[in-house]
Write a structure and sequence with these properties.
The protein is 33% helix and 28% strand. By secondary structure, it is of the alpha/beta class.
């Protein structure tokens, strides 16, 4: 992983491992969440996402490995800067949203915080005296995020916050997370298996499969890997590169011993083939390739089974 040495990490784990009995749930995970990231933690159910989050929050202890929060191994100090929503949000069912915040504010030592402003921010400013137990799932998730935001944490850890929501509820949570990140500078670690939705907000991804972190990549790198390409197979790649570059001077090309990859969607493969043949280049094959983002993730998460 090529990172700038000046990067400020709010989460760093070193070979973090958790074993329950004979089952290794988390297997030597080394994760890096930079300040300002919306870090999408991707994996199938049971891959180890929740376990890692619980280790970060001190809800469980690692079998092996180290955790660093905000550049320090003093984890209690770091955890004081974290708000979290793990699994289903827990609150007082027979209390209003405001009453819930009042009670949780005492636990979070956030007595002076403007609770009405916080409810407005998460879109619950107008629910009045409606009891939390009567809320829709989307409203419950937003209340859970509001509780996690008590004390103005610098980092939010959210476990599957859009799971089970309808499209409108998903959009509400997605927009809320973007606002928290952009307007308040909150770093967010969010887990999910809903790839398309997470892709709309994520700046960095960590992909976990069977307890192993198989890849960390930025959103920009991912988009580069999931592009339309024309693969030109030829034993004269340098000559082919010159011809294609003349036809499409702005289009990125990847040259290898087996040929040239033209990274673009709107290109005329027939015209490229004719130009190469007319110039004496032996074309052994032309193949259009589209690397779908979902296919990219599924391949790294261990396929469709399990």
């Amino acid at each position: 992983m090529n990172e700038n040495r000046q990067t400020n990490y709010v989460i760093t784990t070193d070979n973090l491992t958790k074993v329950y009995g004979k089952k290794t749930v988390l297997d030597h995970v080394s994760m890096h969440v930079a300040q300002g990231d919306i870090y999408g933690f991707i994996g199938k159910n049971g891959a180890g996402k929740t376990t890692l989050m619980k280790l970060l929050l001190g809800m469980s202890q690692p079998t092996e490995g180290k955790i660093e929060l905000f550049g320090s191994h003093q984890l209690n100090l770091g955890r004081a800067k974290i708000g979290a929503l793990i699994e289903a949000p827990a609150f007082y069912q027979n209390c209003t949203a405001y009453e819930n915040l009042q009670r949780f504010a005492i636990l979070a030592n956030a007595k002076g915080q403007d609770l009405h402003a916080l409810l407005d921010f998460v879109g619950l400013g107008n629910v009045g005296k409606k009891k939390a137990g009567q809320f829709s799932l989307g409203m419950k998730q937003r209340l859970g995020i509001a509780i996690a935001m008590l004390g103005n944490p610098e980092l939010l850890v959210l476990d599957e916050p859009i799971n089970g929501l309808d499209p409108e509820g998903i959009k509400e949570i997605r927009d809320l997370l973007l606002r928290l990140n952009r307007e308040q500078g909150v770093t967010i670690l969010v887990s999910s298996h809903l790839l398309d939705e997470l892709a709309k907000i994520t700046t960095r991804y960590g992909i976990i499969n069977n307890g192993r972190l198989v890849e960390e990549t930025t959103a920009t790198e991912l988009m580069q890997n999931c592009q339309h390409k024309l693969q030109v197979l030829t034993d004269q790649p340098k000559q082919a590169e010159k011809i294609i570059k003349k036809m499409y001077p702005q289009v990125p090309l990847l040259v290898s011993e087996s040929g040239v990859e033209v990274i673009a969607e709107d290109i005329d493969s027939g015209a490229i083939n004719r130009a190469l043949v007319l110039d004496g280049v032996n074309v052994r094959g032309l193949t259009a390739i589209t690397d779908n983002m979902e296919d990219y993730f599924i391949q790294r998460m261990g396929g469709n089974n399990g």
